[in-house]
Design brief:
The complex is a heterodimer. By secondary structure, chain A is α/β, with parallel strands linked by helices. Chain A has helices at residues 2-22, 72-87, 101-111, 125-129, 157-173; strands at 41-43, 51-53, 62-67, 92-97, 117-121, 137-141, 147-152. Chain A has five helices and seven strands; from the N terminus they run H-E-E-E-H-E-H-E-H-E-E-H. In chain A, strand 3 (62-67), helix 2 (72-87) and strand 4 (92-97) form a beta-alpha-beta unit. Chain B contains six helices and no strands. The A-B interface holds A 25-26, 28-32, 98, 123-124, 128-131, 133-134 and B 39-40, 42, 52-53, 56-57, 60, 79-85.
Chain lengths: 175, 140
């Protein structure tokens, strides 16, 4: 009896440890899910005299990708982001974060520009409103301008396959 | 001596300049920054961290306090964007009950088990007549 109690207790501890080790402390649940996307009116990266607002996307399910030329994981995920844009499931808006135009523009030339538009947040001020803390970050925003999903860190084909694509399809079906 | 003094001034002056703007405001910024977690390097507060985001957030705090916002407003601003996780001292609410109460529950449980164990170990029974005789024999 006593022996089995000890073994049982030990197994519970092992179980807790196994679960605990699998949790990612970087995955901070965003309080922004289900909330309207914070408003912005930012100049475009490529055309500084033009500006773009999140309101311009109302009525469309869209993806917002926060990136910077100085961010190596952004380069790693770039093919995945490009693939989302190419597949046409949703337009991808880029938010260029704390970058310099003279670095960002050559980066796009080298790696391709899959974005519908790219807004330029040089001071990172809008990114704070979006709770950005580790580029790259990706958001899915629905037709009504509500944030439905947030990913901190690079997108992978698995995440797109299992989470992003089904979510976007479902949100698009909903009128 | 004069050289030493000028050396001292050289070192001390820049420090003065940094704190010059408004020491009261800076103190409030720093004390708030000590309450908020830097999400880039999660085991540091934004007061301790040199990550660019921590600097941005410190500036954000300064701006807001300067604009007349209260400490509460700034904390609400951060929580709205980064969640409770940004608070270095997590709030007491339904989701964090286990976190706050857990150690005390475990302590109480341990104390209860210990007391039960100690009580169970009843004092040794009186010696029987035979044992007493044997003890006396051994002692002699």
């Amino acid at each position: 009896m006593r022996f089995w109690l000890l073994i049982g207790g030990f197994l519970v501890l092992v179980g807790l440890l196994a679960v605990g080790l699998r949790l990612d402390p970087r995955e901070v649940p965003s309080p922004l899910i289900g909330k309207p996307a914070p408003a912005f009116e930012l100049p475009l990266l490529q055309q500084p005299d033009k500006s773009f607002s999140q309101k311009d996307m109302l009525g469309t399910v869209w993806v917002m990708n926060v990136w910077a030329s100085w961010c190596p994981p952004c380069l790693v995920e770039h093919p995945v982001v490009s693939e989302i844009a190419r597949s046409g499931i949703a337009p991808v808006v880029g938010l260029n974060y704390k970058d310099a135009r003279e670095d960002a523009l050559p980066w796009l030339k080298r790696n391709g520009d899959p974005f519908k538009v790219i807004v330029y947040d040089a001071a990172g001020r809008i990114a704070i409103d979006y709770g950005v803390y580790g580029v790259p970050e990706t958001y899915v925003i629905d037709r009504n301008g509500v944030i439905r999903y947030k990913r901190v860190g690079p997108l992978t084909p698995e995440i797109v396959q299992k989470k992003l694509r089904p979510l976007i399809e479902e949100l698009s079906k909903r009128g | 001596m004069a050289r030493l003094l000028s050396l001292f001034l050289l070192v001390a002056l820049p420090l003065q300049v940094i704190g010059q703007e408004d020491p009261g405001l800076e103190r409030r910024v720093t004390s708030l920054a000590h309450e908020l977690r830097c999400l880039v390097c999660q085991n540091q507060t934004i007061a301790d961290s040199n990550a660019p985001l921590a600097q941005d957030l410190r500036n954000q705090i300064r701006e807001q306090l300067k604009a007349g916002k209260s400490e509460r407003d700034v904390i609400d601003f951060m929580v709205a964007r980064y969640g409770d996780f940004v608070l270095y001292r997590p709030p007491f609410k339904a989701a964090t009950v286990a976190l706050w109460a857990g150690p005390f529950v475990l302590l109480a449980l341990g104390a209860w088990l210990l007391i039960r164990r100690v009580r169970k170990k009843a004092p040794p029974a009186e010696l029987t007549e035979a044992e007493r005789r044997r003890a006396a024999q051994l002692l002699e």
